[in-house]
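In response to a reviewer's request, we include the raw inputs and outputs for one of the modeled complexes. The two entities were modeled together in a single run.
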Amino acid sequence: MIDAKTPALLLDASRARLNVRRMAEKARRLGLRFRPHFKTHQSVGVGRMFREYGVEAITVSSVDMARYFAEDGWNDILIAFPVNVREVEDIRELAAGVRLGLLVESPEAVRRLAGTWPGSVDAWLKIDVGANRAGIEWDDLELAVAVAREVTALGPLRLRGLLTHNGQTYLARTPAELGAVHGESLKRLRAVREALAGRGFGGLEISVGDTPSAKRLEDFAGVDEIRPGNFVFNDVMQLELGTCGEDEIAVAVACPVVALHPRRAEAVIYGGGIHLSKESLVTRGGEEIFGRVCLPEGDGWSGALAATAVTSISQEHGIVRTTPDVLARLRIGDLLAVLPVHSCMTVNLWPEYLALDGVRIGTIRAWDCATPGV
Amino acid sequence: MIDAKTPALLLDASRARLNVRRMAEKARRLGLRFRPHFKTHQSVGVGRMFREYGVEAITVSSVDMARYFAEDGWNDILIAFPVNVREVEDIRELAAGVRLGLLVESPEAVRRLAGTWPGSVDAWLKIDVGANRAGIEWDDLELAVAVAREVTALGPLRLRGLLTHNGQTYLARTPAELGAVHGESLKRLRAVREALAGRGFGGLEISVGDTPSAKRLEDFAGVDEIRPGNFVFNDVMQLELGTCGEDEIAVAVACPVVALHPRRAEAVIYGGGIHLSKESLVTRGGEEIFGRVCLPEGDGWSGALAATAVTSISQEHGIVRTTPDVLARLRIGDLLAVLPVHSCMTVNLWPEYLALDGVRIGTIRAWDCATPGV
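The model returned the following structure tokens for the whole complex.
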């Protein structure tokens, strides 16, 4: 039975392993390199589960995170964030020990990478296929060519390919919509690749990464590499999108009940924005929620309670709205297991996981503290 | 000049000191006990600034936070969160060294506090004056009496008073509205106090806590203690409410510029939900923003740039929407200083502050890691 005095980040390692295994098998079946994004779990302990299924290449979102995983033996690491030129010396140091991938999207940033590089460094052009976050806009061929030229001129960096994160798949509400968004994205990437080949930059790879596409779709024609991250844990957002089942959600936050309000069928839990994050979603029913609520059951947690959700959140408080029936069964001091809306943001708040067998598994946050000067 | 390779939490200690001094002076002038909420800064280093202005009693939001500040010599500590009965033994241990205040709101929770207590423990009845978060609803006199009876029957706890956090003041859009909300809240608290006196529970104190009221209002008739927290740093939310000026905002997040997008007058910064939190607000103009943007200037930062804000955020990326003029002056690798929407939630993400003189000041997060078994 789950036991915790204060809020704790629970990990169902069996579910996480199954999620990893399925994705690894799918990538193998489709002939894709599987380079999972480790920013979701941020833990060498969880990372080792991926090794069990043959994963050798990983994605991270910061130089620090690359260093953290490199120390645990990972040696093919892509930093999937536009290169931060303020960290060039740290990146150079890192490149001495691992095969490194960097994202570039402007000639200026590439020029700031000048100098000698100790190891093998791949440059990926970050392409914006329509999300309008970061990257070279897919129809701005002149910019893509200019960046490719800078990389080639620089020498030590190898122009490896085109990379995108298609965040727009999160807006798709049906499988057909998801397929259409994904198809359009691949079409654009292939067009950029072809145009660059026509301008003398041939043999570029394509790397894509988002959990909804990677989980639901089969058509990855022209793609060399996938980089999903969230699938290892999933969350209420994926559930709402229909890209996972409840039994694929591998993390939850244990929250003590501190007050019961029968008048309004609400419980107050010790579990707020500092435990769950402030990420919310609006359900298909039009309700803003901050998590789904389960009861401890066996060694883990039950299915999500019907007509029950975290409907409001402040720094430490969560308000669980439920039915009079459920409320009548709750007692002060009980634990609830809250499924997070966005597991990446929730996990980022914690120094460790509490696995269902009672083992504690550290995250980068614990490592950060142990690093002198940080 | 501000210098950081990666995102950093900047602290303007002079501004913070001035914010503390003003609030301490106001409390003294109004004859109120000043028990600031330390969950905003979560730092013994920042806490010591309060000592310089005569503060002796503090508010925290967890048992861990109480222990952290107790280790630094604070000995009059109120844990302003409904008592978590799973932590009774830890609370008992804490009570041996400090004068402790606890919040209770149900007979059940009070009964779980039975047993001997080593020191002086005050019980405060948490009253809900209309925010519908936690607490005994102000018009539920029977429940208030029942809880008061349990406390008295238990013996070792002393029934100290009534406490509320009037979160509704954050909804007030004008000083008149704020005054009306605050006035109604005090009226309700005084009514509960009077009713309890009539039932044999006399001499109860009243404790209130929210920054908008504490900063803007003068009428605290009947109040014994104020517990504002946010005022030490303020933030864009307070600015939007009109309860602080820009020169009273004492924290900002330094974020490197990693990409520029002239086509849409946007910059991409290394600064996302893991640095700022996902807290947003909708401005009077109807725009959802995640922070205001300043330039480094002198030893600190400039005023907020006009027509410029963080308008979208993901795990590590922030999108700054600005004017073509501002964008034309930015370079890859520049630092921007982002004023957070909600400083409490932002600070909670960091192990340390970087003060403008280059000194690093730790938070509870660094201490947490150093504590064995955590």
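As requested, we also summarize the result in words. Residues 246-362 of chain A form a domain with the Lyase, Ornithine Decarboxylase; Chain A, domain 1 fold (CATH 2.40.37.20). Residues 68 and 177 of chain A are 38 Å apart (CA to CA).
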